[in-house]
Specification:
heterodimer; A: alpha+beta; 3-stranded antiparallel sheet; globular; B: mainly alpha; Ribonucleotide Reductase, subunit A; two-stranded antiparallel ribbon; 21 helices
Chain lengths: ~90, ~500
Amino acid sequence: MTQLASITLMHNDAARPIIDAVMADNPDVRVLNMPGAVKLDCEGRLRVNRASVEERMGRAWSPQEIQLVLVSMAGNLEEDDDQFTLSWRK
Amino acid sequence: MTAKKLSLKQRYEFLTRDLDWEPSYQSADDIYPYDKFEGIKIKDWSGWEDPFRLTMDSYWKFQAEKERKLYAVIDAFAQNNGQTGISDGRYINVLKVFLTGISPEEYQAHRGFAFTGRHLRGAGTRVACQMQSLDELRHVQTQIHTISHYNKYFDGMSEFPIQHDRVFYLSVPKSFFDDARTAGPFEFMVAVGFAFEYVLTNLLFVPFMSGAAYNGDMSTVTFGFSAQSDESRHMTLGIEVIKFLLEQHPDNLPIVQRWVDKWFWRGFRLLGIVAAMMDYMLPKKVMSWKEAWDIYFVEAGGALFQDLARYGLKMPKYADIATKAGEHISHQNWGLFYQLCHVAGFHAWMPDAEHLDWLSAKYPNTFDKYYRPRFEMWAKQEKEGKRFFFNGLPQLCSCCQLPMLYTEPGDPTKTCFRSSVFKGTRYHFCSDGCKDIFDGEPEKYVQSWLPVNQIFQGNCGGATVPEVLDWYKINVGVDNGDYVGSPDEALWNAWTAQRFSEAS
């Protein structure tokens, strides 16, 4: 059975660079668009990279700032200064 | 020379555990008297860690930013008369159910986490519970502030705190949180942190709030998603607590499994109310309850329990029954609301033809066969001036407190009745799930405040319906009954007429 790691973000200007970074950095992302929010799913593991977000945002960004636009998530979280990763153990 | 910036991990270490101390004047067992009686064994409290590594200083910073954004939207919504731009006047009824049935539970969660944060002896857990306690207080406040704007125009919202304590259907959410808050701190954490926050609340806050966005309710979607940003932290606390308990000692597994089974079922029954809100009360629809259940329970819950299988934890008992009931539950609950809205604090209606077609398409296995004919019959009776109301008092389940309206697993034409005898008295249940919960702790559930039984005992304002409604603070002819013919409908129609006359 599939085990989707998942993140749901608000669909707004503050979240757009994060959504773009997730789509660029994670192969085969499944996108579910809902009014006001977008749910991104990846088999097993989904990673948000600080460097990728900063590149798109054009300023310094801490992975903790994701909390301002985070709606929901699924998976075990690992977060440090460079990344925010959700994964299921195989 | 500038000081080197601390990493996230270092900051968390210094600002949580490093601020803790070993008590010396009093024994730890005297300071934390409640964290052993449930039978949970903890070898090492430092084994628990918040993966968000959120420290109190960052917490204030982020929460302040969320509040600034939220209140800017609420203010703009009020200034620009956003209430006139919602999809339809019927939509307001979801806010009435939300404010009376859900917002007070945010407050209960605040109280519960304040208690747990005080009474669990691990520093990391205490800090996380403290933050969640503050979050929940923020949620109830922002919900009251947001919905207070609608209260200026629409009926049925002004008496929500008293109604939460008195009205019959609101005892369903109230009893859920009363049950959790009167349990020990570990059970509370599994009940609210894990079963409710991790496994179930996505169903309430994600598709439902997306529905608010779709129906033009900018203020509600904003408080919803603002609350939900805290919810992700709560979900993380919930999953970490489960893993922590299961890692600490093998003896914890059967206790935790019993709690997971119990609180999954209680949560499933409670969320049946949200099922009816999603399928029937949103004029513009995002997804059906069944679709939301498949995404958020079957798919996401499935992945979670696969992950937890390594500890020996199994899918909640009756998860399969719940998934099958997902084909029925919203229709059965809406039928209940429709038949009882004359004694409720919100309005109900029969769906129009387009809405019925949507339900037929979303529920191909059940809607046409079991529910559409019933709804079409009720609509026909309405046209003939014979609107059907249920004029008795429904028998309530002694566990979930919902009326006994659900059907047998495998036979949607037969009402499900279960019962248990305890100390010579027979207690009734709507399902095997609710009966099991009662049988596990009968001494607790025999104390339940069952609204219908209380009416019969003379504790609810009097023996007649008008007396009880008066005691409920339901303004008869205004707050209750059909949407069609209500002051809410008249107001909405006036706004709509005005919009068209100005446009022409």
